[in-house]
């Protein structure tokens, strides 16, 4: 049966309208248009606060006309009509020219209709892009609709009319929100809503007292009162959460049903030997998570687990212990790191931590029971890389540590049993999957995040993984104090930073200096996928300010009296790998006292003697990046200090991030704050936000309880009915919801 929702639009709204909708919105079916929900609602009786209207986006707003004047244009033929509109929040005086709070200057070229209709006192809805000229806000050639003569509502009780919400649809420059509304109102008259099935299982709809699906469609598009659209939204929001969580639960069930090789602990293997030689006791969290992992690895279905933890909570040891269990059972483990520096660091520190339990590919020499740990990165000399590849393929290497070079086609494994992905935010799902494909049977998978992420984000973005959390730091971790150093208010502090560094070095400690750029004339060294400053942040000082760069700062420090005689070294991603690892070794050995680098040191780098971190132009970094960066100090029982240096004026929006980071060292709190300052699309990552929005009504931060409830429902439904055979409409909604691109996203996950 050609279900109502799958019908071509022309069948319900006619060829003409269907063509317009397809052209501007790319929508072709009844279902897609019905699910094109208003983004928000304006209240007919209220004006839109102009100060809250976003710049440079298609917006729809209601305002009152306060003046209207027309003049001939000087340079060319035609006239210019200037209309000043207001939200009545300002002074209310009709001073033309704009610039008053709560006013907006609207310009029309040859605007004959505007000249005639937009008379002072009229209320109208405008649609267009608000831009800023000099000090005042403006709108050029917008579409408008006079509200008081809205032909759709003849003879309605004025009070009721004033309360009636006006749906605002995501509009385009060519198709206004009210044109979309008109088409949808035709659709609502012609569509057979009663034949639209409900994807929600009946018992859930009853439990939640949701509107029937047909009513919900009517009320979300044509509400009479705010309560109407609230109720409709409640149902669709939950529906959205359930469909998404069911997709993820189905995916989890599919993964769990795959057959993996069980890697059981060996009583006289490397892992027990390693535990006996550990110089510290595991935290309670490490022990508990370790137990979970050990049990899951020992099963013949694949582990798929996300390990979240605070910066410095000791995730690496947890992962290493899991890798040893797999090696003890005869398998291999791969550790995937986001940068060469981090891969090399992991290699060094894992070798060091394992001590005589490990050997490398070249030296051998230890007992035959030792595990061979192999580094494999793209920049290694050819001979060494070939040897490493050979060792991975032959099974000689028990633990292989590398960057994305591990993903290349020429790399294969003898028996890959466990994949550990460190600092996941740098890796796309495609990469995780490429590695997965290198095992003949599905390997066990452990993904580790760099900083904690809120529970609901984990449930949404990593919803196909089970989650473990390490929420305590090992004992003896010294506190880090963080200060914002505002050079705009205190220019003198610029030199104070270097004498402060000198004090630290004289006390026998070391210093990190982090810069947003490598050289004085490049575009920075941001690593993709991180919380980069938004385009708006970058625009507002027009690039006029020269940002601190690694080479620039190193040059400057040569002549800095406070640091005379101090060994300083630069480190950044564009250096030769041999130079890079030489620099890291010299810093680790406490020969280099002050390291000037980009964010290459952001993740994982572990030098216990470093106590001071200076982040220059710190406003250029995102919250989680700053949190991660400062986690590099305060590691060796010595208190750490982090200076967030900025030239921005106090009160600049980007300084909020710095204040947030200075205010707490709780990573969970910070990631909440971070997400609040970002947009939803950034939270979910590019693959989730592309095209028409993935999440329409659901907001991962706001709707935690809904997501959690839906997850429980989904888990229950899928556990009882893994293929959703008894829930065909839910299954169809999942397929519909996940367009092919998104389906692939989940499949690959
Ligand atoms: P992260 O979770 O940020 O990746 P790491 O795994 O790098 O943290 O651990 C940070 C440091 O803490 C390392 O030097 C590690 O050896 C040390 N460490 C890990 N677990 C413990 C523990 N239980 N007691 C003391 N130190 C620990
Ligand atoms: Mg780490």
- In this structure, how is the largest beta sheet organized? 8 strands, parallel
Structural class: alpha/beta
Q: Please, how many helices? A: 28
Strand arrangement across the biggest beta sheet: 11-12-13-10-14-15-9-16
Global morphology: globular
Written account of the structure:
The protein is of the alpha/beta class and 749 residues long. It has 28 helices and 22 strands. The strands form four sheets. The protein has an eight-stranded parallel sheet, with helices on both faces. Strands 17-22-21-18-20-19 form a six-stranded parallel sheet, with helices on both faces. Helix 8 packs across helix 9, helix 9 (226-257) packs across helix 26 and helix 10 packs antiparallel against helix 12. The relative contact order is 0.09. Mean pLDDT is 84; it is low at 92-98, 524-543, 685-693 and 740-749. Magnesium ion binds at residues 315-316, 422, 604.
Key attributes of the depicted protein:
eight-stranded parallel beta sheet; 749 residues; globular; six-stranded parallel beta sheet; binds magnesium ion; 38% helix; alpha/beta; 22 strands; binds adenosine-5'-diphosphate; 17% strand
Topology:
Layout: H1 10-13, H2 15-25, H3 30-34, E1 40-43, E2 58-72, E3 79-86, E4 103-109, H4 112-117, E5 123-133, E6 136-140, E7 143-146, H5 158-163, E8 165-168, H6 177-190, H7 202-207, H8 213-221, H9 226-257, H10 270-277, H11 284-297, E9 304-309, H12 315-328, E10 332-336, H13 340-354, E11 358-359, E12 371-376, H14 382-394, E13 399-402, E14 416-421, H15 429-436, E15 444-448, H16 455-461, E16 466-470, E17 480-486, H17 493-506, E18 510-514, H18 535-539, H19 550-558, E19 568-571, H20 577-588, E20 594-597, E21 610-615, H21 623-630, E22 640-646, H22 655-663, H23 667-677, H24 680-684, H25 686-689, H26 704-720, H27 728-737, H28 740-748
Parallel strand pairs: 4-6, 9-15, 9-16, 10-13, 10-14, 11-12, 12-13, 14-15, 17-22, 18-20, 18-21, 19-20, 21-22
Antiparallel strand pairs: 1-8, 2-3, 2-5, 3-4, 5-6, 5-7
The structure holds adenosine-5'-diphosphate and magnesium ion.
